[in-house]
Design a protein that fits this description.
The chain is an alpha/beta fold. The chain has a single domain (about 1-265), classed as Carbon-nitrogen hydrolase (Nitrilase/N-carbamoyl-D-aminoacid amidohydrolase, 4-Layer Sandwich). It has helices at about 15-30, 55-60, 65-80, 120-125, 150-160, 185-195, 245-250, and strands spanning about 1-10, 35-40, 80-90, 95-105, 105-110, 135, 140-145, 165-170, 200-205, 210, 215, 220, 230, 240-245. The strands form 3 sheets. Strands 5-4-3-2-1-14 form a 6-stranded mixed beta sheet. The protein has a 6-stranded mixed beta sheet with strand order 6-7-8-9-12-13, with helices on one face. About 50% of the residues are buried.
């Protein structure tokens, strides 16, 4: 069994040192609580709502090599944990919305957000690293970010490549038409995708309102059968969710019965796109 944690917090926009202090405190607390894999929100070190590409460029950092990456790598080593966190990454004259994975030996790897949401298209380049799976001592870890989770291909690509757990730094925003008395669409998608791929999902969202943009919280940890193991969290409080997950069971249980396994039963030859434009 692997104990995982989802850290829900509110960054202070543009104040990276204060955000890193807060992240350090939450990660330390989660590690003291027994978590060996700790997931934090999208763009947790900077905040999300950039007014311009130039502003984002001034706050973005190298991964590895930047101050945030150095601090997080040191924290992972000190605590003996794996950390998955969203960082604004600068690479030459390009910017990426990145999820970085750190372990006790340093940077394990990174994912760059493939599906950009809203004004992110004015700030960042689409990710160019695909959907890597990182083979670590604690398990086969994949990660993607927020809107990537609206695409079943994101989950399926990771699982086909060997992932047993998918970590999702996210900044979920309200969905038009969402009844406030119903469960958030984002958590429903996490549950459905975990079930249809027999994979553990750890989603860490932020809270608060930043430059007029509200965020919905409701971080969640979902077991490989699709049912929540912890959360959804609140919509407006910083908190840490914990759960014990069985990654070996996630892999074993992909065979639902003697006949059916949703990975083996795929029929790619039947999935060809019809001729004509997508509208």
């Amino acid at each position: 069994m692997l104990k995982v944690a989802s850290v829900q917090l509110e960054p202070d926009f543009g104040n990276t040192p204060a955000n890193l202090d807060k992240i350090t405190a939450h990660v330390t607390h989660a590690a003291e609580g027994g978590a060996r894999l700790i997931v934090l929100p999208e763009l947790a070190t900077t905040g999300y709502v950039f007014e311009s590409r130039e502003e984002a460029f001034t706050l973005a950092e190298l991964v590895p090599g930047g101050s945030a990456a150095l601090i997080l790598a040191g924290l992972s080593e000190e605590l003996g944990v794996h950390i998955v966190i969203g960082i604004a990454e600068r690479s030459g004259d390009r910017l990426f919305n990145t999820s970085a994975v750190f372990g006790p030996s340093g940077l394990v790897g990174k994912f760059r957000k493939v599906h950009l949401w809203g004004d992110e298209n004015l700030i960042f380049e689409p990710g160019d690293l695909g959907f890597p799976v990182f083979h670590t001592p604690i398990g086969r870890i994949a990660t993607f970010i927020c809107y990537d989770g609206w695409f079943p291909e994101s989950y399926r690509t990771c699982v086909i490549a060997g992932a047993d757990i998918i970590c999702i730094p996210t900044n979920w925003v309200p969905i038009p038409g969402q009844d406030e008395n119903r469960q958030a669409m984002a958590t429903v998608l996490c549950m459905a995708s975990a079930h249809s791929n027999s994979v553990v999902v750890v989603a860490a969202d932020r809270i608060g309102t930043e430059r007029g943009q509200p965020f919905i919280g409701q971080s969640v940890i979902v077991g490989h059968t699709g049912w929540p193991l912890a959360g959804p969290a609140s919509a407006d409080r910083e908190e840490i969710l914990y759960a014990e997950v069985d990654l070996a069971a996630a892999r074993r249980d992909r065979a639902w019965n003697a006949f059916n396994n949703p990975l083996r039963d795929r029929r790619p030859e039947a999935y060809s796109m019809p001729a004509g434009p997508i509208v």
